[in-house]
Design goal:
Layout: E1 11-17, H1 20-28, E2 37-40, E3 47-50, H2 52-56, H3 69-75, E4 78-81, H4 84-99, E5 105-109, E6 112-117, H5 122-140, E7 144-149, H6 152-164, E8 173-175, H7 181-190, H8 203-209, H9 215-220, H10 223-241, E9 260-270, H11 273-293, E10 296-307, E11 318-329, H12 332-346, E12 353-361, E13 364-365, H13 377-395
Parallel strand pairs: 2-4, 7-8
Antiparallel strand pairs: 1-6, 1-7, 2-3, 5-6, 9-12, 10-11, 10-12, 10-13
Helix pairs in contact: 4-5, 11-12
The structure holds a DNA duplex.
DNA sequence: TCTGGGGTCCTAGGACCC
DNA sequence: TCTGGGGTCCTAGGACCC
């Protein structure tokens, strides 16, 4: 995408949904608007999305729900269990609308998308961004912010400015290069280094210790110094802040993913091998579905399980076993068998496991399937047919859902989700009803 | 009682080789 | 007492992102 000659056009537009999960909830429950609302992670564990009102009463991002009880009660904060099916569907709709505003787009996360505006004249960027923003609001009911700049890192900075800086929040748009030079410089001098995309909470204090406190400080620091402090990544970030496009995606297809991870924490800890194994069977099964849906074979898997590290008085164990397959595959039964066998062997009695997962690695496209020496073609064909049938059954919305037997009993470790809203856009039984 | 889930990339250090 | 040097590959762990 984009090209390094971003100087000719507007560059990149970064569109980002405001308080995305909360905004999705508000689309279907307008009564939530104007009120402090948060969305919780799986298991109703942490705060993962906050309305502006929730931010205003002091609920930190990522805060454990049980630790903000008093703020919640004092301010009537509404906590909702995550409804990822709804957010995923709204995200897909959002991306479809945004695609119409650029020759190329790159979905960066569930609520973010980079648009290639390198051929859009800078003078037209502001009005284009405003038009796009109101279109999204009109079609989907989702508010978003738009940052436009010559590099992705600067577009992120512009986007943050559009959302937070009082001069920009009304429009929700910030076109960095359309600002007078002095104003732009002042923005970069006010922008905390730790808020720059790519500079995290670990590095920010280190940089501050060396006098690098703002985006402008990092941009102007000597590259040798930055290299020593934060490696090539930090040098790249500084170059990006200076307007050098180092993160262009190019025209090639996006890199294929390298791993598939499926993990959860449990509502009730698993204290016996059977419970843990049935949960792990479920994760292996989900991971296999994802791999097949993307046409990938896995070369191996890692199964892991952890005790609750916050309970220091309890015995701790971080279980992790890697299993390499004889040949790359995508058969649910093979994954489940490998994962459950491994976890049973590594399980330590007397430990309460609170979270577990399965990660597939060594992914290769199934189109280039290679059988191991002495591989059994007939068996492979039967496996493929069975998996196709399994996926077909499980694709039926509201269908029975076909599971391998090893998953039996996994409800025992299911997470809590007591505040979930209806899956309004993806489930016939939960579709909103309008009354006239 | 109660602390998310799913990814990527980089680096340092060890193993191994000549 | 002395105990190469340079290259590659792999892995674990850290840092970052949303």
């Amino acid at each position: 995408m984009g090209g390094s000659q971003g100087v000719t056009g507007a560059g990149y537009a970064l569109v980002d949904g405001n308080n995305f999960f909360v905004s999705c909830e508000r689309v279907f429950r307008p009564s939530l608007s104007g009120r402090p609302v948060v969305v919780l992670s799986n298991n109703d564990g942490c705060v993962v999305s906050r309305s502006n009102e929730a931010k205003a009463v002091g609920i930190p991002m990522g805060a454990p729900w049980h630790k903000v009880r008093d703020i919640v009660e004092r301010n009537g904060v509404i906590g909702l269990s995550a409804n990822f099916e709804l957010y995923g569907d709204m995200s897909a709709r959002l991306m479809r609308v945004l695609e119409g505003f650029a020759p190329r787009s790159e979905v960066y996360s569930v609520d973010e998308c980079f648009l290639d505006w390198s051929s859009l004249p800078l003078a037209e960027a502001e009005s284009a961004a405003r038009a796009m923003r109101s279109q999204v609001l009109r079609l989907l009911g989702l508010p978003c912010g738009v940052g436009v700049a010559p590099t992705k890192t600067l577009a992120k900075l512009a986007n943050a400015t559009a959302k937070k800086h009082p001069d920009f929040t009304r429009a929700g748009v910030c076109v960095l290069m359309a600002l007078p030079g002095r104003e732009r410089e002042s923005l970069l001098r006010q922008f905390a280094a730790g808020d720059v995309w790519g500079i995290g909470r670990r590095s920010a204090p280190v940089l501050a210790g060396h006098g690098l406190r703002t985006a402008a400080d990092v941009r102007d620091a000597s590259r040798e110094r930055l290299r020593a402090l934060g490696g090539v990544t930090l040098v790249r970030t500084a170059d990006e802040l200076a307007g050098i496009d180092c993160l262009a995606s190019g025209d090639e297809a996006p890199a294929p993913r390298q791993s598939v991870l499926c993990s959860r924490s449990f509502g009730t800890p698993a204290e016996d091998a059977d419970t843990l194994a049935s949960a792990v069977a479920g994760f292996a099964s989900r991971a296999a579905e994802t791999a097949r849906a993307e046409g990938m074979l896995a070369g191996g898997l890692i199964v892991f399980a952890d005790t609750n590290r916050f309970r220091e008085e309890l015995p701790q164990h971080r279980l992790s076993v890697s299993v390499a397959f004889d040949e790359p595959g995508d058969d649910t039964r093979a994954f489940v068998s490998a994962a459950t066998t491994a976890v049973r062997e590594a399980f330590r009695p007397g430990h309460a496991y609170r979270r577990a997962g399965v990660m597939l690695y060594g992914l290769t496209p199934s189109a280039g399937r290679q059988l191991a020496l002495f591989g059994d073609t007939e068996r492979a064909a039967r496996s493929a047919a069975l998996m196709r049938a399994l996926d077909a059954v499980n694709r039926v919305p509201g269908g029975p859902g076909l599971r391998v037997a090893a998953e039996m009993g996994r409800e025992k470790s299911a997470g809590r989700s007591t505040r979930r809203t209806p899956r309004s856009t993806t489930n016939w039984d939960e579709i909103p009803v309008a009354k006239a």
